[in-house]
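[Q] Does anyone have a clean structure-token version of this?
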Amino acid sequence: MPELPEVEVVRRGLERHALGRVVRRVDVLHPRPVRRHPGGAGDFADRLAGVAFTAARRRGKFWWLATDGGDALLGHLGMSGQMLVQPEGAPDERHLRVRLVLEDRELRFVDQRMFGGLLVSTGGAQVPGEIAHIALDPLDPAFDDAAFVRRVRGSRSGVKRLLLHQEVVSGVGNIYADEALWRAQVHGERPGDRLRVRDVEALLAGCREVMLAALEQGGTSFDALYVNVNGESGYFDRSLHAYGQEGRPCARCGTPIRRVAFTNRSSYFCPVCQPAPRRRRT
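[A] Here you go.
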């Protein structure tokens, strides 16, 4: 699933290509991607026809385009969603679901698995109400470092679970959680209340470092499903130290990276640099 850096790359592309342009027409080619819009496909198209986009914003893994009427086109890429900019009249993509025809180009929502979606958020130009409960992300200037440290150290949950909890911190997914934990030399199962302040601060710094590094390389692409608005893939997968590196030597100590099951996914870590926590005494 695209994480913060990938969504930020898309947001920047929309900021460059969509702002100041009027929507002439909206074609909903499949109803599932607009299933969360309360009024259905017809209302979705009617609400966007004739509006102009004034800003491109993001919170965590959600992006939105503010309109001149104070509403917002809110989107989530899900597992395989793509938001592409194409010249008008370009051949349709195989999994094209929604087309927004602007004055001189098209915005196209392409989604093979259709776990992503779009909706119009009433009055959501600044922050859509549908995502107001989601925490800020570590790259947001308003992110409260001290509050994050307190929240983590006040929990008995494993720290990786806290990193993936979007009401604690947004935008961090499985890939960047493993990379940040590797940089901070913290095992993902370490309970939050057994971390020192400096451990949590190092973890937060690791999140920022890995996300900024990923942004410089256009995000992380393991297949053709994640692309930016121009259809180009990111290259950060070539710089990963932990995620997907099972059996390869740790770049810090040379110990083979280990993989373990984590919920329905996997966690990757160095067993020497990131020692597993001891069990609590009962």
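[Q] Thanks! Anything notable?
[A] Confidence is low (pLDDT under 50) at residues 219-236.
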